[in-house]
Amino acid sequence: MAQQIKVIRGMHDILPEHINVWHQLEDSYRQLVESYGYRQIRTPIIEKTSLFRRSIGEVTDIVEKEMYSFDDRNGDSLSLRPEGTASVVRAGIEHGLLVNQQQRLWYNGAMFRHERPQKGRYRQFYQLGAETFGMPGADIEAELILMAARFWQTLGLQGIELQLNTLGTAESRANYKDILVTFLRDHQDQLDADSLRRLDSNPLRILDSKNADMQPLIESAPRLKDHLDQQSQEHFAELLEILDHAGLPYVVNPRLVRGLDYYSHSVFEWVTETLGAQGTVCAGGRYDSLVEQLGGKPTFAAGFAMGIERLVAMIIDQQQEKDSQAPHIYFVMVGENTVKVGHKIAEQLRDALPELRLITHAGGGSFKSQMKKADKSMAAMALILGENEIETSTVNIKFLRQDKAQLEVSQDQLATQLKQLLNS
Ligand code: ATP
Ligand code: MG
């Protein structure tokens, strides 16, 4: 038999089993962003390597170690795109979409980075993105953020936290850079090799280091926020004000600097704890200097990109949870009169909570043997009714899958209590 050829390491097939989730995600995204007035742009998967070198920055992980670059047959250095923004800007300049105009654009496509593959981190992965041009204010940044928030809502995804920071204007950042470099030089012995190299070329990136040993030093470094000029402060304050007014919760994370060189003013990430180490599902910010850097006229710009694989994983996890037919409650009844009273309580609960999956024990037996059955049923809780409980008109709730203290609840309050527990 001929030797089998397998998929390239870090790349993956998307099988029919999960394609519905991909469609759901892509369809919802398109519908959502188009309702905000964004129009799609599609660019080639391959670009000149210089495009990414000039936009993302020479001293970034992406350009230094992660790009799939190769010489084509003419000897030109080309790269598979590691992200979408540079290509959109290139196309925008090339086709005259940016000068004296406002644009709201979106894209969907494969990106390539030669990273160490792990769960949620692949060498070919897909991003949904949005880019806006020609709008200088915090209002468009707020729009992007609110649009992403609405996307999580549409998908029914919960527990995604918004983290925000500001990098300020180029001038105030330059000023801060000097202060940071002075601090880091004073602690040079604590810097790892990557950071030492970045000390001259791109010191801000040191704050973005993922090396755990570096964290105490980073924690004690001077903060950008304390060195911003008034314009930078005001811009960020306005963004927070719009978000506050819209009732959108966020966390200001002063250490959020983003991996790419082209950001200024607001930067943000949406982070979840449910995916393990690869918890950032969406990231973006303002990048006013990029268009000029790539040969266009100075143009205001802001956008974001989200990783489809990570969102798909979240949706699948949540669906599995939802699909699970495990009962919420196994009702244990031991002792005189408990079966009669218990069935009455059970029916009342079913009336009050139509979604409730409740198994009432049948066939008698000891407390221990009933509890064994409760555990085996995979129920989240055991409801316990014994003679003591009959006397005090209470029921005990024992949590079978969580490390939580047993609860004694009055029978009158049981439905209300359970409703809260099921929703929490
Ligand atoms: P990370 O900190 O996870 O490496 P990043 O800052 O490199 O992310 P961006 O370049 O901002 O990521 O890309 C935007 C989003 O694309 C990320 O938040 C993530 O959801 C997704 N993404 C980035 N790299 C990968 C990858 N290698 N595999 C899967 N998804 C990715
Ligand atoms: Mg990365």
SSE topology:
Elements: H1 16-35, E1 39-40, E2 46-48, H2 49-56, H3 61-66, E3 69-71, E4 77-80, H4 85-94, E5 103-112, E6 124-133, H5 138-155, E7 160-166, H6 170-186, H7 193-201, H8 215-220, H9 230-246, E8 251-252, E9 264-272, E10 280-286, H10 290-293, E11 301-307, H11 308-323, E12 329-333, H12 338-352, E13 358-360, H13 367-376, E14 381-385, H14 387-392, E15 394-399, E16 407-410, H15 414-423
Parallel strand pairs: 1-5, 7-8, 12-13, 12-14
Antiparallel strand pairs: 2-4, 3-4, 5-6, 6-11, 7-9, 9-10, 10-11, 14-15, 15-16
Helix pairs in contact: 1-5, 1-11, 5-9
Bound molecules: adenosine-5'-triphosphate and magnesium ion (MG).
Kindly describe this structure:
This protein is of the alpha+beta class and 424 residues long. The chain has 15 helices and 16 strands. Helix content is 41%, strand content 21%. An 8-stranded mixed β-sheet has the order 1-5-6-11-10-9-7-8. Strands 13-12-14-15-16 form a 5-stranded mixed β-sheet, sandwiched between helices. It is elongated, with a radius of gyration of 27 Å. The N and C termini lie far apart (56 Å). The structure holds adenosine-5'-triphosphate and magnesium ion. The site of adenosine-5'-triphosphate has 19 residues, from β6, β10, β11 and α11.
- Helix fraction by DSSP (H/I, runs of at least 4): 40-55%
What small molecules does this complex bind?
adenosine-5'-triphosphate, magnesium ion
C-alpha-based Rg, rounded? 27 Å
Report mean pLDDT, rounded to a whole number: 93
- How much strand content do the residues show? 15-25%
Report the structural category. alpha+beta
- The 3D shape can be described as elongated
Low-confidence stretches: none
Strand adjacency order, main sheet: 1-5-6-11-10-9-7-8
> Number of helical segments?
15
N→C terminal distance: 56 Å
Mind describing the biggest β-sheet? 8 strands, mixed
Number of strands: 16
